[in-house]
Automatic annotation (TrEMBL):
Originating organism: Sphaerisporangium aureirubrum
Protein keywords: Carboxypeptidase, Coiled coil, Hydrolase, Protease
UniProt-recorded name of the protein: D-alanyl-D-alanine carboxypeptidase family protein
Residue ranges occupied by any D-alanyl-D-alanine carboxypeptidase-like core domain in the UniProt entry: 246-353
GO molecular function, one term: carboxypeptidase activity
Gene3D superfamilies, per database record: 3.30.1380.10
Origin organism lineage: Bacteria, Bacillati, Actinomycetota, Actinomycetes, Streptosporangiales
Keyword Transmembrane helix tagged: no
Coiled coil: 45-93
Keyword Coiled coil applies: yes
Amino acid sequence: MPAPRSVGLVAVVMAVVSLFVVTGSGMAQAGAVEGVKPRRGPGDLTELRREAERSSKELAEATKALEQRQGTLTKADKELKGKLAELQKANVELSKVRKPLSDLVQSLYQAPSGGDLAPLFSGQEEGSLQALSDMTYLVSGRDEVLADAGRLYQEQQKLAGQAQDLRANKLLVEAQLNMEIDTLRKRSATVVKTLTRTLVKLGVKVNSGGRTGAACDPTQVRAADNFPNGLLPVNVLCPLQQRGQELRADAAIAFVALNEAYRKRFGKPMCVTDSYRSLGDQQAVFYRRPGFAAVPGRSNHGLGLAVDLCGGVDVFRSAQFNWLETNGKQFGWIHPDWAYSSPFEPWHWEYDPKIGSLL
């Protein structure tokens, strides 16, 4: 039967774990209602992207905290092993203290007529000295032996309780961490799934051309940093609504939101002549239009962060250009300073991740 301390600790642990299960479920449901509720309009994409990035950041922070706390758990494990070693040592010491008294009592019970103490009780002189010595040891040492045994027993009980507390604490911490990570992971996945569905409804063929849903996942944009300019693989590029055009996930999501606002204002989507350029495409443009294209390997097109537009935006101070200049920053898109004069490229627009992260 488990000790009262054990029963209490187990009950506490189970109660806390149950609480986290309920809380985690509630958080997931809350995320589904508040953070992932159905949205309509271009601003909703921005909010979904921001929520996805926020969820990813929280998950990363929780994972980092888990790694840090693992050090604490490792230390607790070490302390637990130490306590168990002390407990084993206390058991050995207790056995040593009890053994002489136990052996003597056992000899008295096993030997007939009082065993080694028989000469003392029978009045026989032979062996009486030894018998007296045994009796003296038994009487004078009894209190000391019992006191030592009691002290060691108390220490044994204390160490056993500490070891049990450490086990329960370890179980509780692990349950809390795992529940927190699991809840955040589910929340992040739910937000990204909702974002993907929204993009598909707006005409973005997320899984086209050998891509996976992760290609349009803004929490995965760091994957693009692992590849050189102009050599981004298809699975880190998100397609646009304009056929054949693609950008890095965060830029693409922001552009789709901007495109919807533009469509609402002008009654048609933006016209895109160019977006992501491979290194080969950059070289072709550089030699075809010297002085009007960045050195291959240095263009923002090669990072999936730039577009060249048409349909009126390419005409400086047209209604379309002015509208985009006024409203683009609300979606993270800017007309860079150099494009106003050196060289003059009214059609060239870039996504600024720093601005986008502040939206």
